[in-house]
Specification:
The complex is a heterodimer of chains A (about 60) and B (about 130). With about 60 residues, chain A is an all-alpha fold. Chain A has two helices and no strands. With about 130 residues, chain B is mainly alpha-helical. Chain B has one domain. Chain B is built from six helices and no strands. Classes of the chains: A mainly alpha (about 60), B mainly alpha (about 130).
């Protein structure tokens, strides 16, 4: 439950499902859009994490 | 007629009542407009996000003196409608800052509230005829 990647993935999943059904109507369009948003959120967050890694917290 | 010559949809309730219903119960606005599948998906997503947020020791943020950003966060949290009031009544969502999941919990609670607020705009668009599905 406390795994950061799992929680981030769950958040990305919920948001991607929400916006898919909010903005897209057709089934194939929805699938493509869902995959795009989910991947963007997940990979974007991981990429951002790596970019921030060299910077110290304090 | 709505702007752009689009025909407003016949709503089962006055727009204000529909928006209040949609705010109080996630997905209810779409259900009343007979968008059953979308209503079910929206309700499931928002309730899941809200419950996960509470389980992760997230905080149902209330306005704090000297912290103007907390007011914005409160608006987002208030977007959860009846879920917010029910959780407050049950004394949930106090927020455990020492919990490792606290920030995640808060994020889930803010997300669910903002998603529900976006649904209000969608309901408005459907009723006004800007969106025909």
């Amino acid at each position: 439950m406390l795994d950061h990647l799992a929680l981030m993935s769950l958040d990305a999943l919920l948001i991607a499902v929400f916006f898919t059904f909010l903005w897209k109507r057709d089934r194939s369009e929805r699938l493509r859009y869902f995959l795009k948003v989910f991947a963007a959120l997940l990979l974007g967050a991981i990429a951002l994490g790596w970019l921030m890694y060299p910077f110290p917290r304090g | 007629m709505a702007d752009g010559g689009r025909k407003p949809r016949q709503a089962p309730l006055p727009l204000t009542a529909l928006l209040i219903a949609a705010w109080l119960v996630p997905g209810l606005g779409h259900l009343l407009l007979r968008r059953r599948a979308r209503a079910a998906v929206f309700a499931a997503v928002i309730v899941t996000a809200f419950v996960v947020g509470l389980l992760l020791d997230g905080e149902l943020i209330t306005p704090k003196a000297g912290d103007p950003l907390s007011l914005l966060a409160f608006v987002a949290i208030l977007g959860n409608g009846a879920l917010f009031f029910a959780a407050r009544l049950l004394d949930l969502g106090q927020g455990v800052v020492t919990s490792p999941a606290f920030e995640y919990g808060k994020t889930f609670l803010l997300t669910s509230g903002m998603m529900n607020l976006l649904l209000l705009l969608d309901v408005h668009d459907i009723v006004s005829g800007r969106k025909d599905w």
